[in-house]
Structures are given as C-alpha cells and as structure tokens.
C-alpha cells in the first residue's frame, strides 16, 4: 500500500462527460455544445477532460481538436483502441493541447476476449504491449484501461496491468464496465492490485464505475479508499445505460466526509450546480428532481417537521450548504405537508406579521389550496392572506403559433389576453421556438421583464400537465395548468405564472396587512 498514507490525498478528477456521457442515447452534443461544456469543466477545475473518441467519427475528432485548441488548464484526452490508426487519429486531434493524454482500452475479460475480440490471452497481452509502447513519448501521458476488468480473471487482470505498466502506461484504469461489482469487492480488488503490480511511483490506479446496480459512486469511493488516485466520472452521472459515477456526488462525498475518506479533490464545488444546469440545457435532459447534489429537491424542504428544524438550524436536515455547490439558497417549499412554522416565516418575509388567530385562519385556507396544487407560491399565499381571488388577473382568449421547419422564418406567436381594467390586448412575440415566442408575448403584454427558468410537461390520464417557473423581480414564480393539449397546457401555465407576478407586484404590504 505504498500509495496510501494517512494525510489528505488529492484525488484526480477525470471527467468523461464528453465521451462516455455523450455516447449514451439522448446525450449527443455538437462541437459547439462540447466546447461550451468543456469551458465549464475547466472552470470547475477538473484535472482531465476526455473530450471524445477521435477515431469514432470525423465529428468527434473535430470536437477534440477544438477543445484541445481552446481549453487551457485541464489535460485533454482522447479514447483510442489499440489500433495504430486510432492512436494516430488521437495524436492529430490532440495536437493543439498543452497537455495531452491518450486513453487506450482493450477488453480483458473472457467474454470480451472470446465473444468480441476473438483473441487469446497472449494476443491481448501483445496488443497492450505494442500499443502502449507505440504511444509512449507521443503523448504527455498514456492511460491503459482493462475493459471489463471486474469480470476478468484476477491473475490475468494482473498480467494485463503489469504488461501496460511495463510498456510505459502512467495510469492503470480498472473499469467496472457493466456496473457489476460492490463496494467490499472493489475495495479488496484495488488493495490487491495496489500490492501486486510493480510500478514506478508516478504510476497511479484509476477507477471507472458504471451504475447498472446503482452503486457507481459507492464503488468509486471504495476504490479511492483502497488506493485509487484518479476517479473517472461524468456530470449528472450521465453515461452508457444507467450512467457513470456522478462527478458531483463523488466530489461532495469526499468534501463532506473528508476526515473519513482522508481525501479531497481540486474541484471548485460552487460551480457544480451551474455545470449541471448547463449540461441539462445542452442535452435537453434534466437530472431527476431528487438527484443528489444538483436535483431541484436536493436543498428543498416541504415536510412541516423538517421545515421547523431547518428554520431553527439548517444543520438539522442539511449536511452541506446549498452555496457549497452553487445553489443560491435552500428552499422551503410550501405544500400540503408544510406546517405553521414555515407558513408564518414565509408570510413574514412577504410582509405579514400574522397573529395567532390570523395564522390559524390562513393555515386552514392554505391547506385547502395545497390539497389542490403541488406547490403554493408566494403570490398564492398573498392571495390567500388578502382574500385576493377575485378574477382580477389576465385571461387568455387566443394563442396562435407559427413554426416553419423549411423556411428560415423565426418562430412567432400571437397572443390575445383580456384584463378587467386594460381590456383586450394582442401582441406578437418571437423566439428560438414557438413556446419561447409565447413567453415573450406574455412579457410584452404584461410589462414583465422575465426569464423562463424551467418547463416540465407530464402526461397522465390523457391530460398534459405543465409546470413552469418564471424569474421576475428577483423571485421565482410558479405556474401550473392541465389541458388535453400540451401546447394549451403550457400556455395556460405561463398565464398563471404571469398573474402571480402581477398580483405580487400589485399587492401593497400595508393594504394586505389591513386585509389580513
Ligand atoms: O466502461 C468502460 O469500460 C469504458 C472504457 C473505455 C474505459 O468506458
Ligand atoms: Zn465506461
């Protein structure tokens, strides 16, 4: 165990969002999207960016070349088979990078050798020897991955890794390609490899875990405890099948439990949430609401007992602060599970100091509303307290949208609303898509300078349910609606959000205090 000591170790973060993550269905990215993500990964301060697999396609080679040209800081890496033409392709693609790594992989397990490669163990060893020796000296670093290492016979895995180390590999990666192992098992494996492979001090072990049984992060942490100095991971845990080890989770586990793991990373954790959001925007795939660290619920509390605890001292139900990972603040979501403590506190921030009997009354009305909708927004609460549900807002009369696929005409929407005081108003909005165009028309009719933060559409019982979040006046306003048609549901959800914004603006705290 020459590589493990008792002081805090720096674990290298090898990010493969743009390679293993990008190759999963639904996550492919253009060169410009990869470049934008790579800038964010550099800001996050990852040690290595695996930007693609140069020989896989001319597009992948171009993306690696662009990332290599533009990104300063992290080492830039390309995946490669053992073939000489792959190594050459990667060499060309990585040429502009300041620090270049080649990542050679070859299947070592019996299934991979027999079914895929049709190679004997001796042939596998000679391929490793030939390719690593050829790459050594042409790149700053060479990494060798024994693909499907976990299902490889232990003795042969050691032979393969020893062969790579002897041929000059600087990083020995031990992938759990099919997400099959468990924490105890991988811990024992890394201890054994660490003790058995003869290598110079600058050769490190790396883990690369897939999430098929939901253990990718736990397995990676176990491998780190057993001596792995590099962890391969992706933002939001994207990747083949059930994904890879999630970068944000492994990084925050090391940071939060540093004295247990005696290890940390160089990651700027405050950038995690932004990086997660950017990836979701670029791929159109948001992480699950309950996703650890970066999901919308990661720092949200709705249950009354939890809200009470967090209001007294956030450490009762939070082990990290939201700002540690770049989430602006924790969120006490008002819903049917919320209690009086949270309601009173929220009312206070809105300017209402509710006496005990007022609180009882408002709490009753609040529970009735909460039973009907999943979240009660600030403006809903204002309306409850002020008894302001008098149909004074905008109503939607008509929405027409145009989306032209063949021509270059910008999508537009014509929106007609009616208001008890302003009457009928019609305006046109344009945007990158028809929904953006409707959003812009709402902004212009209602004089709201807003930004669309989130749109979630669900289908159930033949209805489309739309939930939107709009940022305006420094706050987030939610809107929800359901309709048989998805477009109408989304447009109505916007209407409810804009009515909330306007109601919140129009509510004078003094008047409301009087009304309450
Ligand atoms: O999962 C895997 O085995 C891989 C290798 C190419 C490292 O992604
Ligand atoms: Zn993988």
Q: How would you describe this structure to a colleague?
A:
The structure is a single chain. This protein is α/β, with parallel strands linked by helices and 516 residues long. It folds into three domains: 9-283, TIM Barrel (Alpha-Beta Barrel), CATH 3.20.20; 300-376, no CATH class; 395-506, Alpha-isopropylmalate synthase LeuA, regulatory domain (Double Stranded RNA Binding Domain), CATH 3.30.160. Helix content is 42%, strand content 21%. The protein has 19 helices and 18 strands. It has an eight-stranded parallel β-barrel with strand order 2-3-4-5-6-7-8-9, surrounded by seven helices. A three-stranded antiparallel β-sheet has the order 13-14-15. Strands 16-17-18 form a three-stranded antiparallel β-sheet. β8, α9 (216-225) and β9 form a beta-alpha-beta unit. Bound molecules: 3-methyl-2-oxobutanoic acid and zinc ion (ZN).
Distinctive features:
3 domains, TIM Barrel, alpha/beta, 21% strand, three-stranded antiparallel sheet, binds 3-methyl-2-oxobutanoic acid, eight-stranded parallel β-barrel, Double Stranded RNA Binding Domain, 516 residues
């Amino acid at each position: 165990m020459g590589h493990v000591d008792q002081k805090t170790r720096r674990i290298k973060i090898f990010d493969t969002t743009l390679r293993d993550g990008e190759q999963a269905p639904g996550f492919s990215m253009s060169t410009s999207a990869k470049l934008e993500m790579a800038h964010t990964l550099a800001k996050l301060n990852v040690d290595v960016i695996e930007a693609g697999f140069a020989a896989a396609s001319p597009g992948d080679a171009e993306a690696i070349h662009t990332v290599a040209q533009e990104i300063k800081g992290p080492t830039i890496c390309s995946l490669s088979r053992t073939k000489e033409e792959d190594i050459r392709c990667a060499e060309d693609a990585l040429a502009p990078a300041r620090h270049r790594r080649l990542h050679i992989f070859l299947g070592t397990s019996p299934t991979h050798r027999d079914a895929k490669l049709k190679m004997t163990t001796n042939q596998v060893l000679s391929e490793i020897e030939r390719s690593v020796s050829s790459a050594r000296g042409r790149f700053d670093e060479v990494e060798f991955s024994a693909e499907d290492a976990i299902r490889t016979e232990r003795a042969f895995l050691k032979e393969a890794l020893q062969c790579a180390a002897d041929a000059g590999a600087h990083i020995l990666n031990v992938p759990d390609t099919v997400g099959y192992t468990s924490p105890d098992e991988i811990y024992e494996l890394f201890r054994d490899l660490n003790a058995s492979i003869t290598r110079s001090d600058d050769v490190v072990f790396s883990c690369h875990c897939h999430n098929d049984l939901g253990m990718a992060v736990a397995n990676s942490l176990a491998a780190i405890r057993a001596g792995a100095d590099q962890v391969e991971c992706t933002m939001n845990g994207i990747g083949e099948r059930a994904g890879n080890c999630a970068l944000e989770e492994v990084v925050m586990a090391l940071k939060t439990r540093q004295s247990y793991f005696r290890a940390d990373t160089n990651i700027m954790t405050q950038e995690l949430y932004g990086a997660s959001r950017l990836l979701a925007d670029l791929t159109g795939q948001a992480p699950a609401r309950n996703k650890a660290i970066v999901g919308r619920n990661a720092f949200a509390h709705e249950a009354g007992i939890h809200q009470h605890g967090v209001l007294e001292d956030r450490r009762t139900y939070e082990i990290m602060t939201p700002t540690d990972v770049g989430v602006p603040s924790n969120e006490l979501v008002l819903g049917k599970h919320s209690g009086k403590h949270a309601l009173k506190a929220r009312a206070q921030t809105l300017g209402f100091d509710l006496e005990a009997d007022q609180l009882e009354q408002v709490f009753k009305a609040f529970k009735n509303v909460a039973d009907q909708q999943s979240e009660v927004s600030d403006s809903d609460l204002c309306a409850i307290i002020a008894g302001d549900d008098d149909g004074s807002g905008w109503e939607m009369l008509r929405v027409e949208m145009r989306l032209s696929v063949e021509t270059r005409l910008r999508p537009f929407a014509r929106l007609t609303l009616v208001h008890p005081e302003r009457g009928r108003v019609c305006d046109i909005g344009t945007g990158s898509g028809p929904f953006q165009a409707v959003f812009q028309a709402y902004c212009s009719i209602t004089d709201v300078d807003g930004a669309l933060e989130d749109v979630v559409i669900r289908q159930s019982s033949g209805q489309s349910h739309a939930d939107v979040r709009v940022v305006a006046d420094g706050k987030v306003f939610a809107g929800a609606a359901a309709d048989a048609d998805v477009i109408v549901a989304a447009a109505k959800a916007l209407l409810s959000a804009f009515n909330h914004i306007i109601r919140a603006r129009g509510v004078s705290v003094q008047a409301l205090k009087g009304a309450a």
